[in-house]
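hey can u check if this looks right to u? its 106 residues, i copy pasted from the old doc so theres a chance i mangled smth
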Amino acid sequence: VFAPGGGRALYFSRAAIPYARDRAGQVDDAWARANPCFKHLGLYAYKAALIESFAKLPPGRYEQIEKLEQLRVIENGFEILCGVTNDPTIGVDTPEDAEKFEAWLG
């Protein structure tokens, strides 16, 4: 996610942002320290009106390219705000991940 200053998301991508073009996308530890990236944890809270609008909107150009539904929100002028945490996170992308997360919750 590209969200300058940890504020409003301007773009989501499956690729690293920024992409190190002069390095053909290859980065080392020194580059990563100078150009920090963050792990994305998607926890979304939308108002009912936005969900109703979202459900009626067709997938936009960038959503179709990246296969990220967050881009439909941004492409239609809505905002997604971002925050930064130092807390460890658990990704939940598969049913197996959900089982691990439920076990972690206790």
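Residues 4-105 form a domain with the Spore Coat Polysaccharide Biosynthesis Protein SpsA; Chain A fold (CATH 3.90.550.10).
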